[in-house]
Amino acid sequence: MTVPIAIIGAGIAGLSAAQALQKAGHSVHLFDKGHGSGGRMASKRSDAGALDLGAQYFTARDRRFVEQVQQWVAAGWTAQWKPQLYNYRDGALSPSPDEQIRWVGVPRMSAITRGLLKDVTVNFGCRIAEVFRGKQYWHLQDTEGCSHGPFSRVVIAVPAPQATPLLAAAPKLAAVAAGVQMEPTWAIALGFEPPLETPMQGCFVQDNPLDWLARNRSKPGRDEQLDTWVLHATSNWSKQHLDLPKEEVIELLRGEFAELVGCVVPPPAFALAHRWLYARPAGNHEWGALADADLGLYACGDWCLSGRVEGAWLSGQEAARRLLEHLE
């Protein structure tokens, strides 16, 4: 019998690793604490349609990722987003066109991880609390006390603070993960009826509690009844207001938005807030992935590289490459 490989985390890093391992003929089994795939690429279903509350778009620089994105485009999961971009600085809005090619999932960000899940065995709503090794194989224990296994190897593809306790069997790797700081982000969505009178579709914000705002329906494939905007606060502001009730976060950030958008902002017909505790790593790293090949324990994620979607995907590929290399 072939013993499968366990992957903890069904975000872009975990699914990237799963894809590479399956291609090489291995069977994989994914576990995710959420009710759907995507991690920070997830989209939240709401009364105003599906909203991209996490990753807003992604770019592709590495040749391997550029090729992968082309395949996603061909599959109909991804399209280019060409927003009318602005900058807000010193109390003034100015157009900010650039040459950057931006990609989004279609009809929502989670379409990509949905597509990648197609032939993968996955347990959703299953939070793994411990990864331990028997005589020969790995076993996983979830928070309900259920045991899963046996597995020949384990790939941990969750944010560094969540990966640290799961790497206890490899103290050196656990210490590396423990040293990674992840920054939080408060995200809110506001829906307006009628649409706001502004040509702006995305805006980089400086010296303000807000960091970024996007008009969700300016992205390809979105058919929304409301004019929905997604606002991200800076990590500093998010840290200072980490435990604020959602209603207050919405009020404060809505006020900032109304001040900078340059048109009349009526009370929203719809509002929601989401707190990303581990939105992005505080710095860039060059590890690619972490590996204890003799033990058969690996870790990957955007925190092993650049903090971007591309970094997460490349990190998953690297974890798979190191695992396969050790099998030869």
Structural class: alpha/beta
Topology-level CATH name of the largest domain: Polyamine Oxidase, Chain A, domain 2
Assembly state: single chain
CATH class of the largest domain: Alpha Beta
Number of domains: 2
Tell the overall outline: elongated
Strand order of the largest sheet: 7-6-15-16-17-14-18
β-sheet strand percentage = 25-35%
Q: SSE order, as H and E? A: EHEEEHEEEEHEEEEEHHEEEEHHEEEH
Residue-averaged pLDDT: 95
Helix content: 25-40%
Indicate the CATH architecture of the largest domain. Alpha-Beta Complex
Distance between the termini: 19 Å
Q: What's the tally of helices?
A: 8
Q: Largest sheet, if any?
A: 7 strands, mixed
**Low-confidence runs of at least 5 consecutive residues:** none
Radius of gyration: 20 Å
Enzyme class: oxidoreductase
InterPro entries: Amino_oxidase, Bac_renal, FAD/NAD-bd_sf
Organism: Pseudomonas mosselii
Binding site for substrate: 57-61, 96-98, 185, 308
Question: How would you describe this protein?
Answer:
Strand 11 and strand 12 (147-151) form a beta hairpin. Helix content is 26%, strand content 31%. Helix 1 (12-23) packs parallel to helix 8 and helix 4 packs antiparallel against helix 5. The protein is an alpha/beta fold. The chain is elongated. A seven-stranded mixed sheet has the order 7-6-15-16-17-14-18. Strands 9-2-1-13-20-19 form a six-stranded mixed sheet, with helices on one face. Strands 10-11-12 form a three-stranded antiparallel sheet, with no helix packed on it. The longest helix is centred in the C-terminal third of the chain and has 19 residues, at 309-327. It starts with a strand and ends with a helix. It folds into two domains: 5-35 and 124-180 and 284-327, FAD/NAD(P)-binding domain; 49-110 and 182-281, Polyamine Oxidase, Chain A, domain 2.
